[in-house]
TrEMBL record:
Residues 5-191 form the SHS2 domain. PANTHER family: CELL DIVISION PROTEIN FTSA, CELL DIVISION PROTEIN FTSA-RELATED. It comes from the Bacteria. InterPro entries: ATPase_NBD (IPR043129), FtsA/MreB (IPR050696), SHS2_FtsA (IPR003494). This is SHS2 domain-containing protein. The lineage of its organism: Bacteria, Bacillati, Bacillota, Erysipelotrichia, Erysipelotrichales. Pfam families: FtsA (PF14450).
C-alpha cells in the first residue's frame, strides 16, 4: 500500500497545500496549490478567522479536485523563536535482545527530559545517530541485537504563543494534525542529502518579510536565526523607484523579476510622470533596481551568517518564494563570498521554490513512520488502494495543563506531554 500524505505549509505571504503519494521512495504529486495568506504577519497569527477561511478554501478546492477528503495534515510552521537542543538517551535491553520500534520510541521520549523554559514546547524530536553493540548507525537499527541503545537526538522547540495558534487554526478548519515540523528543517529534508548534513551546508529560506538562515553539520541543525528581510524588500524598492503602489510593484517583480541586464535591455516597462517630465524605466533599469535591493538584503543575511564563519565556505542553498529572482544565486555568491545555488523541487507540478518545505515535510513524515509506526488516515481517495489508513504513534503522554482544553488539549498532549 502506497503512502498518501497531505501537508500544509503556512507562511506570512502564502499557504501551500500539497497532497502527495510516496511510490518507491519517490513523490508523486496528486494536488498542489499556493494561495495568498491572510492574518499572519512575520510568522505570528494576528487574525485567526482570516487564516481559518484561507485553510478551508484551499482544502475544499483539493477535496473537489481529488473527489476525496483530506482528514489530517502534516503541518510546517515558521521558524521564528525556535530553539535547538542536542540531547541523548540510553535504553537498557535484555541480553542481546533485538531492537524494536518501541525501544526507539522509548529512547526518543527519554531524550526530551531536559530543562527548558515554561514558554517552550517541543515540536520535533529527531534521531541523529544510534549507538549499540552493532556499532554506530544513522538509520534506526531495528532488528539488530544489542544490550543497550544510545540515541543522539536533535530537539527543536517553539514558543507556545507561536505554536498554539497555528494548531488551533488548523483544527478550527476541520483538520487533524498528524505531525509538526519547523519549515527550516523540512526544507533540509528535501534539499540536502546525508553528505551535506554531515560536512556542512546552509539554507536561506527567503519569505516575504523575513528570511531564515539554518546551518547543518555532523547530522545536526546547529544554528538557526531569522532576519527581517525578504521578497518585500525587493517589491518596496520597485515601488519607491517607480513611484507606484506595492501591488503594482509586486506584479512587475513577478513579470520582470531578473538580475540579468542583457534580457530586453532597452524595453520600456514603465513610465513615471515627474514634475520635470517623463521618466522611462527599461528592463535594464529594472534589473539595476532589483540588484541594488538584493545586495542590501544579502548583506543583512551575511551579517547574520557571520556567527558561523570559521574560515570555511559552506555551500548555501536559497529556497522560499521570496527568492524567486533570476540570477539571484550569482549575485548572492558574490555578496556572501561562497558557493550559492537556488533550489526548487524537480517534481512535475511543484517546480516552485515555495514548495520546498512542503515536499520536505512529506519525506520527513515518511521517514518517521518507519520507526515510530504509521500515521492516522491523512487523505481518503475514491480508489481504496491509494488510501493511507494507518496509525500515528506520538512520542509523548498525557499531562494536564490549564492552558489547553478539549480536542486541542488532547492533540498537544499527544505530541508534547512528558512521560510520567
Amino acid at each position: 500500500m502506497n503512502e498518501v500524505y497531505a501537508v500544509l505549509d503556512i507562511g506570512s505571504a502564502s499557504i501551500e497545500l500539497l497532497v502527495g503519494e510516496i511510490i518507491n521512495s519517490n513523490l508523486h504529486v496528486l494536488f498542489s496549490k499556493k494561495v495568498p495568506s491572510h492574518g499572519v504577519k512575520k510568522g505570528i497569527i494576528e487574525d485567526e478567522n482570516l487564516l481559518v477561511n484561507d485553510i478551508k478554501g484551499v482544502v475544499q478546492e483539493a477535496n473537489d479536485f481529488l473527489d476525496g477528503e483530506i482528514k489530517a495534515v502534516g503541518l510546517t510552521i515558521p521558524t521564528i523563536r525556535s530553539k535547538l537542543y542536542q540531547s541523548n538517551s540510553s535504553v537498557s535491553l535484555s541480553d542481546h535482545d533485538k531492537i524494536s520500534k518501541d525501544d526507539i520510541v522509548r529512547g526518543l521520549k527519554l531524550s526530551t527530559k531536559f530543562k527548558k523554559s515554561h514558554e517552550e514546547e517541543v515540536v520535533c524530536v529527531i534521531p541523529v545517530r544510534f549507538n549499540g553493540d552493532f556499532g554506530i548507525s544513522q538509520v534506526p537499527p531495528i532488528g539488530e541485537a544489542s544490550r543497550n541503545l544510545i540515541i543522539d537526538t536533535l530537539i527543536i522547540t517553539s514558543q507556545k504563543q507561536i505554536l498554539y495558534p497555528y494548531i488551533m487554526a488548523v483544527e478550527k478548519a476541520g483538520l487533524e494534525i498528524m505531525d509538526i515540523c519547523i519549515n527550516a528543517f523540512a526544507c533540509a529534508k528535501e534539499a540536502f542529502d546525508a553528505v551535506y548534513l554531515q560536512e556542512g551546508a546552509l539554507i536561506i529560506d527567503m519569505g516575504y518579510k523575513t528570511s531564515t538562515i539554518s546551518f547543518y553539520k555532523d547530522g545536526y541543525l546547529k544554528y538557526l536565526t531569522v532576519c527581517s528581510v525578504g521578497g518585500y524588500n525587493l517589491t518596496r524598492a520597485i515601488a519607491q523607484h517607480l513611484q507606484i503602489s506595492m501591488n503594482q510593484a509586486e506584479t512587475y517583480k513577478v513579470k520582470y523579476g531578473s538580475l540579468d541586464y542583457t534580457v530586453g535591455q532597452e524595453d520600456i516597462i514603465h513610465t513615471t510622470e515627474l514634475p520635470d517630465g517623463r521618466k522611462d524605466y527599461t528592463q535594464k533599469d529594472f534589473a539595476g533596481i532589483l540588484e541594488e535591493a538584493a545586495v542590501d538584503m544579502l548583506n543583512v543575511i551575511k551579517e547574520k551568517m557571520g556567527v558561523i564563519d570559521n574560515g570555511q565556505h559552506y555551500e548555501t542553498l536559497i529556497v522560499g518564494g521570496g527568492g524567486e529572482l533570476e540570477l539571484l544565486d550569482k549575485v548572492a555568491g558574490r555578496v556572501l563570498e561562497g558557493p550559492v545555488r537556488v533550489y526548487r523541487p524537480d517534481i512535475i507540478g511543484i517546480r516552485d521554490m515555495a514548495f520546498v518545505s512542503s515536499v520536505g515535510m512529506i519525506f520527513y513524515m515518511s521517514d518517521r513512520a518507519k520507526y515510530l509506526g504509521p500515521y492516522e488516515t491523512s487523505v481518503v481517495l475514491p480508489d481504496i488502494s491509494n488510501t493511507m489508513a494507518v496509525r500515528f504513534k506520538g512520542l509523548t503522554k498525557v499531562k494536564d495543563t490549564k492552558e489547553k482544553t478539549g480536542r486541542f488539549s488532547r492533540l498537544l498532549d499527544t505530541f508534547f506531554g512528558e512521560e510520567e
